[in-house]
Write a structure and sequence with these properties.
Structural class: alpha/beta
Radius of gyration: 17 Å
Strand content: 5-15%
Strand order of the largest sheet: 1-2-3-4-5-6-7-8
CATH architecture: Alpha-Beta Barrel
Number of helices: 11
Largest sheet: 8 strands, parallel, barrel
CATH topology: TIM Barrel
Helix content: 40-55%
Shape: globular
Number of domains: 1
CATH superfamily: Aldolase class I
CATH class: Alpha Beta
Number of strands: 8
Distance between the termini: 29 Å
Order of helices and strands: EHEHHEHEHEHHEHEHEHH
Length: 254
């Protein structure tokens, strides 16, 4: 069954690319952002850079007009996650994530708190997505943590839960994107990390795929790190991935 399109279906190829700023310093991150501004759709700030640079750096990039995906994967008691999520929204981020494994109460309280705060303070409501199973995990990890060994079933189960409790989408491998899209009606986003070129190493990821394969299977956004940030020419690397997406989705890379 062909996945139904989301409201993101008309995005240009470049806007589907989220570049992971998995670097240790502000200077390095700024160099990447300045080099790629206008060539990709957004930038992801994860734990390493957030700890190094702090929330003020996130806010600065947002104020400069960059779309920021704050990838801190909130997972705690509902009240703590709700409060942290409100602060993320106040930074001006375009998207942030929580762990679906935190459960329905956590996601429900968080969604309500963010919506109420944004409406009260006239802030844009960020896209909120839920992590299903990390792309560094495989069936062995599921078993050792006491879960069923069927990866696709576990991912789809968590995606359904996220959808039911107000999340805008999920983070999931492209391997499960098709199952998510055929199970949950749009609009419901699939954000896919672990994107590699055919000839590249997989590093610490296990469930990896190419950009073309991820888009073909229903991913809306692709999180790309090393294939772009470690390239000799960052813009050329980003454009190559945009062209790959465009060929599959039959849309302009720009």
């Amino acid at each position: 069954m062909t996945p139904e399109p989301t409201k993101e279906a008309n995005l240009s190829a470049k806007d589907r690319i989220i570049v992971a700023l998995d670097v240790e310093s502000v200077d390095t991150a700024l160099g990447i952002v300045n080099d790629l501004a206008g060539t990709v759709g957004a930038f992801k700030i994860g734990l390493q850079l957030f700890i190094s640079a702090g929330p003020a750096f996130v806010q600065k990039l947002c104020q400069q007009g960059h779309r920021i995906f704050l990838d801190l994967k909130f997972y705690d008691i509902p009240n703590t996650v709700a409060r942290a999520s409100v602060e993320a929204a106040r930074l001006g981020v375009w998207m942030f994530n929580v762990h679906a494994a935190g459960g329905s109460d956590m996601m429900k309280q968080m969604r309500n708190a963010v919506t109420e705060a944004c409406e009260r303070e006239t802030l844009a409501i960020p896209k909120i997505i839920a992590v299903t199973v990390l792309t560094s995990s495989d069936s062995n990890v599921l078993i050792e943590t006491g879960l069923a060994s069927d990866m696709e079933k576990q991912v789809v189960k968590l995606a359904r839960l996220a959808s039911e409790y107000g999340m805008d989408g999920v983070v999931a491998s492209a391997r499960e994107a098709g199952a998510i899209k055929t199970t949950i009606k749009p609009p419901f986003l699939v954000v896919t990390p672990g994107i590699r070129q055919t000839s590249a190493t997989i590093d610490d990821q296990r469930r990896v795929t190419t950009a073309a394969d991820a888009i073909a299977k229903g991913a809306d956004y692709l999180v790309v790190g090393r294939p772009i940030t470690r390239a000799v020419n960052l813009r050329d690397a980003a454009r190559a991935i945009a062209n790959e997406i465009a060929e599959i989705s039959d849309r302009s890379p720009i």
